[in-house]
Amino acid sequence: PRHAHLRFLTRESPQRALCFVDPRRFGSWRLGDAWQPERGPCVVSEYQAFRENVLKNLDDRAFDKPICEVLLNQKYFNGIGNYLRAEILFRVKIPPFEKARTVLEALKEQQQERRKKDPSLTLSKKVKLRQENPDLLELCHTVPMEVITAEKQLLDPEHSDNYAAFKSWLRCYLVPGMSCLRDRSGRTIWFQGEPGPMAPKGQRPRKTGKKSPQLKAEPEAPSPEVTPRASKQRRRAAGKPPKSEEKEEEEEEEADRPGKGRARGRRKVAAAPAVPEVPPSVRRSRRTSARRGQGAAPAV
């Protein structure tokens, strides 16, 4: 690419390149063996550290936000993106705009109750319970793992049906019948059911899916409730519509009034003459006879 300032070339033939494209040169490259300081443990490869990092920092102000927005915070959910958060919340049946701290504190209490009830559970039994009833943090690990383990079917660009397989794997994200809203960061969240108490004000959830065919109204039976603006637009679309009787009367009254600055559209409308038109020859004869007999002739 044109603005590729860093290139990693493969040794295969034909050769391929992994490029860092940065047209405005705002980025930087640092070689290291760990995540950046602003990123937490990986949800896939460092699950236990990821879980502990979330549960021990619930006092952070970041958890005052809705759970759907917190799931994109890479300081605590390193690796979760837009489609993953929708799938996770859908499976655990949590409204996306529920307060994050409320959701995670309840999860912490449930974990403590499990340990109190049966502290002697073996590892295999614990794994089985997690698989049967996974909580939100466990789904943050298992849902991405589903995509990774099915990589040949979902992410391999050499397979022509990879997107079809990925689309069939989705249960919520971009699925017809689901609702969607924009969060406060401008990202769209997909969900089912109610959005939650912290949903943005002024927005209504939009449902996706095929639009049902609309029946066209017959021209003989127009709707009785027609706004003036809609009526005007219909007349414009029809070409040169006939003017209503009230409009014609208003224009005739306006033409009869003295004054300047008449609208161009009203010049064609004129009041009927008060007296019949008199030919010029008759006018001249009348004036001549009036001068002879009675003096000045009255104006016609």
UniProtKB/TrEMBL annotation:
Bias-annotated ranges (Basic residues): 260-269
Keyword Nuclease appears in the UniProt entry: yes
Annotated GO MF terms: DNA N-glycosylase activity; DNA-(apurinic or apyrimidinic site) endonuclease activity; nucleic acid binding
Occurrences of domain Endonuclease VIII-like 1 DNA binding (ranges): 162-200
Keywords: Endonuclease, Hydrolase, Nuclease
Region (Disordered): 189-300
Record carries keyword Nuclease: yes
Stored SUPFAM superfamilies: Glucocorticoid receptor-like (DNA-binding domain), N-terminal domain of MutM-like DNA repair proteins, S13-like H2TH domain
GO CC, alphabetical: nucleus
Signal peptide start-end: none
InterPro entries, A to Z: Endonuclease-VIII_DNA-bd, FPG_N, Ribosomal_uS13-like_H2TH
Gene Ontology terms describing biological process: base-excision repair
Low complexity composition bias: residue spans: 291-300
Descriptive protein name: NEIL1 Endonuclease
Species whose genome carries this gene: Aegithalos caudatus (Long-tailed tit)
